[in-house]
Amino acid sequence: MYSDYPGTCGAGDDDDFIASDLCCACGGGSTKDQQTCQDTNDEALDSDGFGCHYYVNDPESCGQYDTGDFEANEMCCGCDGGRRNDFDPENAEVSTVGEILENADNAVDVALAIIHNPQAVINSIFGGGGDDEVVDEDIVVQRE
């Protein structure tokens, strides 16, 4: 319902249901199994005066009308460019909470990513991450 009527987000909320947390159309939900993309050309246009919207219907033209300010293959979703969001909180390869926050769409994705990647929380607390593995010797100080 909220996809068709986003202006009604929150109108039916109660103790068990909060649209802004649970529904994608209201800024909540989860993007698992979804892929979204945002064109990044801002106001830049190709040499024929078209923006990224043109390339959705004519992807064969990607790159043919680039300018110094406009690169279709980098900026346009229709050319496999743009800013893609295909963050899957259950299978994300993240090593810190910072990476989760950088890639997740909303609070639900953050929570799911933390649940499925507890090592990211440990790395954030103890300074590990990437290829650095936190081991007992890093945490426990031995007494003589």
Give an account of the 3D structure.
With 144 residues, this protein is mainly α. The protein has 3 domains: 1-29, no CATH class; 36-85, no CATH class; 88-131, no CATH class. Helices cover 30% and strands 4% of the residues. It contains 7 helices and 2 strands, in the order αβααβαααα. The protein has helices at residues 19-22, 53-57, 72-75, 97-103, 107-116, 118-126, 136-139; strands spanning 36-38, 83-85. The protein has a two-stranded antiparallel ribbon with strand order 1-2. Helix 5 (107-116) crosses helix 6. The chain is flat and about 50 Å long. Mean pLDDT is 81; it is low at 131-138.
Quick structural summary:
This protein is mainly alpha-helical and 144 residues long. It contains seven helices and two strands; from the N terminus they run H-E-H-H-E-H-H-H-H.
Keywords for this structure?
144 residues; mainly alpha; 3 domains; two-stranded antiparallel sheet; 2 strands; 4% strand
- Structural class call reads mainly alpha
Radius of gyration: 21 Å
Strands ordered across the widest β-sheet: 1-2
Q: Tally of extended strands?
A: 2
Low-pLDDT ranges: 131-138
Calculate the terminal CA-CA distance, rounded to whole Å. 66 Å
Count of spatially separate domains: 3
Mean pLDDT: 81
Shape: flat
Number of helices: 7
Portion of residues in beta strands equals under 5%
Please write the string of helix (H) and strand (E) elements.
HEHHEHHHH
Helix coverage percent: 25-40%
Report the major sheet.
Answer: 2 strands, antiparallel
